[in-house]
Amino acid sequence: MDDYVELEKNHHAILQAFISRRIIEDSTFEKIVEETNRLCRKNLQPTDYINHINSYIMEYQLQIKDIRILPNPVYWVLINLNADEFSKSATKYTAHETTYFKILLEKMISNGGEIGKTEALNSGTQAEITLSKAETVLRSLIEDGWIKSIVSGYYTLCERSLADLDPLLVDLPKCNLCHQKVLTVNGKLNQCQNDCGTTLHHYCSQDWLQKHKNQCPKCKQQFK
């Protein structure tokens, strides 16, 4: 086959690192690539590995992609492209607990990716679980990396959710600059004041707006 992609020893080493870790912080990934290049006598960049491995594993509904949520650094994540990844990977959760997470997920999506702690707890009744059980499940979801608690009194999605559940998050806005999902921060989105539909990550907008004199990348008017 003309489009057959073969993985060499160095590619297998990188892929194995992702299989064992699932999520790798960018600086750690660079060190892994550096060591792999040294051992295999290669001179490839991190993106060279990502692109080549992805062309091989996409056939198996897998992909390595980058995820970033402030204030965290960039992470590289091995994801399953199946939309029901939570149900498959969360075998530790009961049917009611899985339903509870899906209820939370729906509410978080409709609210830009976050939910107030009180509302999250009270939502347990919709899944027929008690308040104390809801507290236990929320702690487990945090420990397993699906959600995280932030100081403003909200739960928000983690890198794992944004990666593994990406097909379910189609209603979350995307940044017009980096094209990744944008989550609300304390109930607010960083949007253009001219109603042109432009949404930007705060960390993306800072550099852009400074260089372009506060000009929206879409409508070319003052962003805010």
TrEMBL record:
Catalysed reactions, as listed in the record:
S-ubiquitinyl-[E2 ubiquitin-conjugating enzyme]-L-cysteine + [acceptor protein]-L-lysine = [E2 ubiquitin-conjugating enzyme]-L-cysteine + N(6)-ubiquitinyl-[acceptor protein]-L-lysine
What Pfam families does the record point to? Answer: SMC_Nse1
Record carries keyword Glycoprotein:
no
GO MF, one example: ubiquitin protein ligase activity
Q: Does the keyword Metal-binding apply?
A: yes
Which residues belong to any copy of the RING-type domain?
175-220
- Entry EC number(s): 2.3.2.27
Gene Ontology CC annotation, any one: Smc5-Smc6 complex
Give the keywords, sorted. DNA damage, DNA recombination, DNA repair, Metal-binding, Nucleus, Transferase, Ubl conjugation pathway, Zinc, Zinc-finger
Matching PANTHER family: NON-SMC ELEMENT 1-RELATED, NON-STRUCTURAL MAINTENANCE OF CHROMOSOMES ELEMENT 1 HOMOLOG
Q: Which family does it belong to?
A: Belongs to the NSE1 family.
- What is the designated name of this protein? Non-structural maintenance of chromosomes element 1 homolog
